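Notebook B, p. 112. Complex prediction, attempt 2.
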Amino acid sequence: MTGRRTLVRNLNRTREKILAAALAEFSARGFAGARVDAIAGRARVNKRMLYYCFGAKQDLYREILRRKIAERAGLIESAPDDFAGALAHIYLGGGTDIDFVRLMEWEAIDSGGKKCIAEAERRALFEKAVARLRVLQRRGSIPHGVNLTQLFISMLSLAMFPLVMPQLIRLIHGMEPTDPRFMRQRAKFLRWLGDRLEKTTETVRIKSRRRRNPVAPSQTAVHRGRPFKKPGQLA
Amino acid sequence: MTGRRTLVRNLNRTREKILAAALAEFSARGFAGARVDAIAGRARVNKRMLYYCFGAKQDLYREILRRKIAERAGLIESAPDDFAGALAHIYLGGGTDIDFVRLMEWEAIDSGGKKCIAEAERRALFEKAVARLRVLQRRGSIPHGVNLTQLFISMLSLAMFPLVMPQLIRLIHGMEPTDPRFMRQRAKFLRWLGDRLEKTTETVRIKSRRRRNPVAPSQTAVHRGRPFKKPGQLA
DNA sequence: GGCTTAATTAACTGATCAGTTAATAGCGCG
DNA sequence: CGCGCTATTAACTGATCAGTTAATTAAGCC
């Protein structure tokens, strides 16, 4: 009773609490699975406030999606100029954000071909990403003739999959995809992969000097892999 | 009334009809979203029969998952021995099966860390897959030092992602991931990618002969990509 | 044909859940 | 202090849905 005497109204704070709770609940259960009662309970507000602040449950869901998409929009722009670095960047910046990945996944599995949220913006963003790949291709980092939209799709695949299918990661690897060790390992692997796809010109030159020893090229390739140990990038 | 006079009982056929309908409904909506009324309606049987044949909704769901997993279990074994071929095979054999991919996705997003269906079998299967990659590694097709579980995870990523996130494919590529053109393109790309990761030894040899012309190696790489036009593999 | 069993139909039930209605009370202003 | 507005609480409502109960009837056997 004493705690109730001090109820303080603050619509903005109520809104923020609802948004935070809704992110957690929608990420965990999707639109249909999340309960307005549960969101309200998590936010410690009365259920009626959800309707007061946001309208229908659907409207709240859209707002959550919109915000998350906007939050991650800078990922493409802030990616490094080298392919391997960009790949690791997309993974570390977006592929490890569980709420982001899950919301994308709920969107995917619930959408059934319907129009998406913020379509135009996202389309523009993805075009920018492909354009950046085109620059790399012109420089010779990415071979001519490679389908750049498929390459970009593959980057997203590699970056997002661990959190998209965590049960498979557990079955294959025996580790949680959220485990920092896994993430470190994944980032390292992606750098290797990115480098392998990218830097064939230099690789060729170094190997050609040793072509009398067929074993040596393989060893050199391993050495090429060593620079991926860039500590400090993953705390 | 005349049609009803000829009602014929056949428990096996009823079971099969329910299974087919349940696959469609669970794939489309997941466990929680699928309605027993809808499954019964699609199967053209009385709702009561679902309980009669399979018990609770959950039991039917498990049966559907089990069957699909079993159906796709041969994918690893039947994969070709070359890495690029295996990658394309996994895509074409499993990555284009929309029901399979979606059921895996529903499993993923609904599971919340719980124990999976047929865990032991699947684990064994995945171990076999990694073991096959190890053979390739010993042969020198895959460089030493590469994390093979990460490589296998990446193969699944690349193969399944288009159907896992169809909305992103539509946004990025402007095509449905179920469009045969997309699938052809994807398979071709994956072969290129697989080859690029695998056959550096041969690539090196060919390129080294032309090292006086720095542009030419890139052209040769494109030529290396040509063999991926294997018609007939996708109707 | 009669009887028994099981496959099938139809209706019912209690719980859940988004949204709605009614009431209360905090806050700022005059 | 009173008033008006709005932020907040509490309870209600009608629709949905998995599962259950009751009844019917097809099929096989004697």
